[in-house]
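HUMAN: Spend a minute on the protein record below and explain its fold to me.
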Amino acid sequence: FEQFFAHVSPVSGMAYVLISHLDPSHASILTEILQRSTPLPVIEVVDQLQVEPDHVYVIPPNRDMAIFHRVLQLSVPEQPRGQRMPIDAFLRSLADDQGEQAIGIILSGTGTDGTQGLRAILGAGGIALVQEPASAKYAGMPESAINAGYATLVLAPEAMPEALLSGVRNLPPVEPKIAGSGINRILMQLRTVTGHDFSQYKKSTINRRIERRMSMHNIDNLEVYARYLKQHTEEIYKLFKELLINVTSFFRDPEAFIALKQDILPLLFADKPEDYVLRIWVSGCASGEEAYSIAILLREYMDETRIERKVLLYATDLDDDAINTARAGFYPPNIAQDIHPERLRQFFIQEKTGYRVKKSIREMVVFAVQNVIKDPPFTRLDLLSCRNLMIYLEPEVQSRLIPAFHYALKPGGVLFLSPSESIGNYPDLFKPLDRKWKFYRATGTFASTRAVMSGGLVWTRHPDAKVAEEVAPKVRITNFAELTKRVLLQFYAPASALTDEKGTLLYVHGDTGRYLRPAPGQATLNIIEMAREGLQLHLRNALQTAIDRNTNTLNHEVLLKSNDHFLPVIFSVRQLPGADHRQKLLLISFQDAPHPISDKRSKPITAGKVELLRVEELERELAYNKENLQATIEEQQASNEELKSTNEELQSTNEELQST
């Protein structure tokens, strides 16, 4: 704190609220210590204190604090010491109260307190500064925030005040026409690289988050930033993640989830036969908290009522990283602030660094990447939850999604929105069940089908229809023949084959019949399967080395069996220079190895020599197999995880195909 306030201007116009982990049984002298470092008035907070600019406010011991309409609210902590997250709690309330004007700063400290609070601030359009871990006495809190991706800037404490005043908050105004042109260029690059179109998102949200990325690079002109994106592809992905940040938590708006359990679930389960499958879709699930919250409520309801039904709960989001987090089902200790201790005990496993969703709840949910605007919806749904997604979209897109949601629901199915969202101009499609917590019941009308098909959503278009702004850029086709000839000239053009990284033949130069032959059985173009006896193992090893280690294999000699003879052969595997960086190409060259000639006839290799060479070859094979056994086991474990994810994706795709 002292390093920070020693560099704070006395007339910055900002108010500073300090939340620290204090001993609840001792009076704090932090106020007196800080007053020595700054000319700003330093005040220990009392309940209902109005926040004023250019003042410093310090939380008192054994109190939690929030802010509401710029007034600080104190309360007695409900949780015991060691389980409290006072920084998270205050930053969340700050995000709700101040929105885009909120700034969260995480300094030295242990644990993960503050990480989820920064997520809320970024979701509201605010700024998050984090102390450089190397300069922190305790790096736990800064590292947690940085690793979670919630740091706008990472700085030493003494550099933060200047950043707040000079760059982060004070971007110069941009002329509307120039802004529109620059924003469009940026959105076009985003769509080209990521495949996602943000032009239908609210301009205010898009502009603010682009400005936030610009401030991190000290860029104050949209055209300059557009050029910067073109030169730095990694920045496009960072901007993409910035645009996807939203606020979520377990049981967000607790009273809404109480209403869901007490009023809505009984309607959904009423009069359903024993073999009924309850179908639910959580759209815009982010990192999975809301989907798991609904799964927990369903499990509780079925246990309490002893009404057991099969549940298909689909949860989707645009952000593949968020979906991966949701699939892992592992969350930081901060979630204890949002989940009742009994639920935490019953449905989560506590691990060293957080909580993991129990298998029984995890298996209720199928996670998949999906774009609610572009991709077909899940259909025949009993419950559709889409909370705090439409608030980021333009009104025109919102009005197209509501009929799509009605189309996805069964007659009598329930739509669950956030308090800040509504069904708009479609009262004929939905009957309100709870106006406060935005539960709506789908009416039995086909009006939504007509509205959806004429509404312009991408998935409703005829497969052959083309829209100018969505035509994919043409993929440049690599001329394998020309690329191969250039390299072969450099290496004296031996018989060669060009393959992709999987070993599939793309081009053949010269006569390779001495080294390759059609594999028996089903036709294949895989060069390893086509290799003659004695060459397969070595060729597979060389290809794997080239792919995994980016290492060429040059002039490797092996004994190749041809008819009843063994012939020495030399082969090389080179990565192809100048190939498209997105596709790895390999050039495999073959030539006969030179051997001594005593007369006009080649001296045959003796049986003893053949046996010795064969023993050496078998020893090499054994060493190779031992070396790769552990790698194979690890790859199998990874494959099992990938298969589980793929299964979820296939279920999601199957649903989309049925919708289409």
User: Anything to note?
Assistant: The mean pLDDT is 81. The radius of gyration is 32 Å. The chain has four domains: 2-168, 176-244, 254-470, 480-605.
